[in-house]
Design a protein that fits this description.
By secondary structure, this protein is an alpha/beta fold. It is built from 7 helices and 11 strands.
């Protein structure tokens, strides 16, 4: 076994991983509420994986009702060291065609009314987010997806919209003018919370459609579902390729210790109730007190 433990957050169309050895669905309790589903644990090539279907099996939870804090918390509780998120997205660029894959390097957050931090109620932390994804894990994901036969674009900016409705045409064209390459509904606050949990995060986006800017038509869910089905097979192969290519020894990432310079509340002022709720997120920090 290696010291990697990879968390996979499966997006639309990717609700399970049938390639795991010794698979087992486990339910993990979180003080932040219920996660989207049980977590499928197992191994590939000696690497432990924990797979969480973001929308729940059967796609039961819409983007604006996801409990992202619970989802990240349970992956942290299971000992994950890194997270690869898989998401279905719309394209804002002509050259990002349906069926292509995108590995992002930036995110614009247009979501609202979604709890976006673990740090509240007496403990304040400000984690850096200039580069919201992990370059090491992103680079390994690009190589793995291309080995699976995918057309992969990188870098690119992900526009995180609120949903669950799709964009108006004016919004779609506005986001293009901002330089966004793809649009989705789930990367935020997921990426912010992963950073607070000291979990390096990468996002593999599956392009299902051109957003409504493209041809004057509207986004068609039937077309999206068709492309998602084909993309899901490539995504599974990408995950296998990624895991098999991981170095045996996981060298430290700066993200592993980001809370060392992010928490500004003095330890003697931490409320016990808040500390208890942060037992998994702050386990490393608390272990050094």
């Amino acid at each position: 076994m290696t010291d990697w433990r990879l968390g996979i957050i499966g997006g639309s169309g990717l609700y399970a991983l049938d390639v795991l050895e010794n698979p087992e669905w486990v339910m993990v309790d979180s003080p932040w509420g219920a996660p989207s589903d049980a977590v499928l644990t197992g191994t590939i090539a000696g690497v432990s994986l924990a797979f969480l279907p973001r929308h729940g099996r059967g796609h039961r939870i819409p983007p604006h009702q996801l409990n992202a804090r619970a989802n990240i918390d349970v992956l942290k509780r299971l000992g994950c060291t890194d997270i690869l998120a898989v998401s279905a997205v719309g394209s804002l660029r002509e050259d990002f065609a349906p069926g292509d894959f995108v590995v992002i390097d930036q995110i614009i957050d247009r979501t609202h009314s979604r709890p976006s931090s673990f740090f509240e109620d007496g403990i304040v932390a400000h984690v850096p987010m200039a580069d919201p994804v992990c370059p090491r894990l992103s680079g390994l994901t690009v190589t793995a997806a291309r080995a699976a036969g995918a057309t992969v674009h990188t870098p690119a900016t992900y526009l995180a919209m609120q949903g669950p409705q799709f964009s108006t045409r004016a919004e779609s064209r506005l986001y293009q003018s901002w330089g966004a390459g793809i649009i989705g509904m789930t990367a935020m606050p997921e990426a912010r919370l992963a950073r607070e949990a000291e979990l390096p995060y990468a996002l593999l986006a599956m392009v299902t459609d051109y957003d409504c800017w493209h041809d004057g038509g509207d986004v068609d869910i039937t077309d999206i579902m068709r492309v998602m089905a084909a993309n899901a097979d490539i995504a599974r192969e990408t995950i296998v390729n990624l895991v098999e290519a991981l170095p045996h020894d996981r060298s430290a990432s700066p993200i592993d210790t980001v809370l060392d310079t992010a928490i500004i509340t003095t330890a003697d002022a931490w409320p016990s109730t808040s500390t208890a709720r942060l037992d998994a997120i702050m386990a490393r920090v608390n272990g050094r007190r």
